[in-house]
Design brief:
This protein is mostly helical. It has a domain of 241 residues: Helix Hairpins (Orthogonal Bundle), CATH 1.10.287. The chain has 15 helices and no strands. Helix 7 packs parallel to helix 14 and helix 12 packs antiparallel against helix 13. The chain starts with 15 loop residues before the first helix and ends in a 6-residue tail after the last helix. The relative contact order is 0.08. The N terminus is likely disordered. InterPro entries: 2pore_dom_K_chnl, K_chnl_dom.
Length: 388
């Protein structure tokens, strides 16, 4: 009877458990486990500070190329309309001049003012609908497209350039849907890392300013006393000084590269880091693009009186614009990280101050209660025995 319930050996000569392990380690399952392990490691790396930073840079660069490809296909008909309005205005002015000449100066002035006001209103309407006097190739250069992507994912929204095509508008919605959570993850991670690093640096400087902190620790260890390290809180003034020097560095950099005044450059840095983003000053808009170089080359070929030195200067400026663009892009991303760092450090100080204020309020209320009881009743009943 016992032989009926005996387990038959597996074909490989092992028991039931050995057969299960051989099935789980079959060659068909090995690639699947390897893929799962690689995916798990990739997701873990992308959640780190380096991974999130690299991902947001790659995301911005891919978005810039995508918007360049889409928006450069837009056929801008406003340039021809503006040219037609300009020609009509000049023709009307010439007709008025031929009609009145200098016989009646008052009628000539009134007629020309009427034509100029009409032309001004027409041009204002065209500009209101997005005309900036440049072609889509000049507008959507790589520096400008990269700053557009950065303004979308960081929620600054400069507004100096907008997508004009339906595909560009749809891509902006999708791009912002995935880019904004990615930026928030970068904001939180970078703020945490920079806050930890700055706190360590501040604590080290604080220990160096103390009188013989190392000797005090050695004496405490020799005496068998455990010396608890005092918690150091970074003050808000230190965070404000860091932001001020960072903005000052950006002020000098943008004023030199973008040909802005110091006030305008400082104004841009503050409005950008505070996420106001008016859009009147945007880096990359004044950089020389390939379309500008091609236009200068064509002008030099058609116009004999054109200066060749101007074309050479444009080519030299366009050659080093990519390095400036990379530094501008890193400056904005690092600035957002510093803002997150100051937020974390100031929040810690605010929590400490709030806790101290709460404890002081409790002591004040307790002292007020004891004084009230002492004034209204027997003073000996108001205090405990250990007070005497």
């Amino acid at each position: 009877m016992a032989s009926k319930f005996q387990r038959k050996p597996s074909p490989g000569g092992t028991g039931g458990m050995g057969g299960a392990s051989s099935v789980s380690s079959t060659p068909s399952n090995q690639p699947r486990k390897r893929v799962k392990r690689c995916c798990r490691n990739f997701v873990t790396f992308m959640c780190t500070q380096v991974g999130v930073g690299a991902l947001i840079v790659i995301y911005a660069i891919c978005g810039a190329f995508a918007f360049m490809h889409i928006e450069r296909q837009f056929e801008d008909k406003t340039a021809g309309l503006v040219m037609e309005l300009r020609q009509n205005c000049s023709q009307k002015l010439w007709s008025i001049t031929e009609e009145h000449n200098i016989i009646d100066r008052r009628l000539w002035t009134e007629a020309t003012n009427k034509v100029l006001r009409e032309y001004q209103a027409q041009i204002a309407g065209v500009v209101k609908h997005g005309y900036v006097g440049r072609s889509p190739e000049q507008i959507w250069s790589f520096p400008a497209a990269l700053m557009f992507c950065l303004s979308v994912i960081t929620m600054i929204g400069y507004g100096n350039m907008v997508p004009r095509t339906p595909w560009g508008k749809g891509l902006t919605v999708i791009y912002a849907t995935f880019g904004i959570p990615l930026y928030i993850l970068y904001f939180l991670n970078m703020g945490r890392v920079l806050a930890r690093s700055f706190k360590f640096l501040y604590r080290s400087l604080h220990d160096c300013t103390q009188e013989h902190p190392r000797l005090d620790r050695i004496d405490a260890l020799e005496g068998g006393v455990s010396l608890t390290r005092k918690k150091v809180i970074v003050p808000s003034t230190a965070c404000l000084w860091v932001i001020f020097f960072y903005v000052l560095t950006g002020t000098v950099m943008f004023a030199n590269w973008e040909r802005w005044s110091l006030l305008n450059s400082f104004y841009f840095c503050m409005t950008s880091l505070c996420k106001i983003g008016f859009g009147d000053f945007v880096p990359g808009a004044s950089l020389t693009t390939t379309a500008d170089v091609n236009a200068a080359t064509q002008k030099l070929q058609e116009d004999i009186s054109a200066d060749p030195a101007e074309l050479a200067q444009l080519q030299s400026v366009a050659a080093d614009q990519h390095s400036k663009l990379a530094i501008n892009f890193v400056y904005m991303l690092l600035g957002m990280g510093l803002v997150a760092m100051c937020r974390n450090l100031m929040r810690e100080e605010v929590r400490l101050k709030a806790r101290e204020m709460r404890e002081d309020a409790k002591l004040c209320m307790e002292d007020t209660r004891l004084r009230f009881v002492g004034c209204c009743g027997n003073p000996r009943d108001a205090y405990e025995d250990d007070y005497y």
